[in-house]
Design brief:
Layout (H helix, E strand, L loop, with lengths): L1 H17 L14 H17 L28 H15 L11 H9 L17 E7 L2 E7 L5 E5 L6 E2 L10 E6 L10 E6 L6 E3 L2 E2 L5 E4 L4 E4 L5 E6 L13
Parallel strand pairs: 3-4
Antiparallel strand pairs: 1-2, 1-11, 3-5, 5-6, 6-9, 7-8, 7-10, 10-11
Length: 249
């Protein structure tokens, strides 16, 4: 009987609550564990979709899947944020300028650029096999031949006769000029170094030279361009002539 009375009281309280009555406590009804888990999941989904948890500035924002690049970082996964930041940084950072990274259009533009140098009247091609021996850290790295032209332009652009990738070099850094005839200016026959007013300068035997002045180069002299650690040593191939003895008849 007590159980029946309690059930009647609970039903009466529920009806009064539905009709707006106050002051009567409604006893919760026990539910199974599976029902509680389902209800908790529904509540979590409802809260996740609720606009109350979003900032005021994001109430009408588009979905993340539509515009991942415009979504704020706190709404994205760490992998997405790092990927987006890496893409943005790669677009904003300019590649290092060197002769190997120039595009074909840039190479064509540089090839058409006017070299700020005019060859003097006493210039000419040498009749000897001169060359630069390129040394770095005590080891011979390269060899630059100097017997095909009367002057050679050294610099960072691909249009130079000898292009170097060191960032301290100017676009057109210096010129190696050969003197093939005597002249009233007092230049002897041989090679001369002419700095094109470079930013980081040119050195002969550890002494920085003045720009726009011809400086005499002799065999064994060491030339350094800018901050590069490569040393250019002027050399010449010596031809050995062997005399042939013709026997008497």
């Amino acid at each position: 009987m007590d159980y029946a009375e309690n059930s009647n009281e609970i039903q009466t309280a529920e009806r009064e609550t539905q009709h707006g009555s106050t002051g009567i406590f409604k006893m919760p009804v026990a539910s199974s564990s599976s029902a509680l888990k389902k209800k908790s999941a529904d509540v979590a989904v409802a809260f996740a979709d609720s606009d109350l948890l979003k900032p005021d500035t994001q109430l009408n924002a588009p979905t993340i899947s539509d515009t991942p690049n415009s979504a704020p970082d706190y709404l994205l996964s760490p992998n997405t944020v790092s990927s987006r930041n890496g893409t943005a940084s790669s677009k904003g950072v300019k590649q290092k300028s060197s002769s190997k990274s120039y595009s074909p259009a840039e190479q064509l533009k540089d090839s058409e650029a006017v070299i700020p140098y005019k060859e003097p009247s006493w210039g000419g091609i040498t009749d000897k096999s001169y060359y630069f021996e390129v040394v770095k850290n005590g080891a011979v790295m390269d060899r630059v031949e100097l017997n095909a032209k009367s002057f050679y332009v050294f610099g960072r652009l691909p249009s130079c006769d000898h292009s170097m990738d060191h960032p301290s070099l100017s676009r057109y850094h210096a010129v190696i000029q050969h003197c093939s005839k005597t002249n009233l200016e007092g230049h002897d026959l041989g090679w001369y170094l002419y700095d094109l007013d470079s930013t980081h300068g040119t050195w002969i035997n550890k002494s920085r030279i003045f720009p726009h002045v011809y400086h005499r180069l002799r065999v064994g002299y060491v030339v350094k361009f800018g901050g590069s650690t490569r040393l250019y040593i002027l050399q010449v191939c010596k031809l050995l002539f062997v005399s042939r003895v013709i026997p008497e008849r």
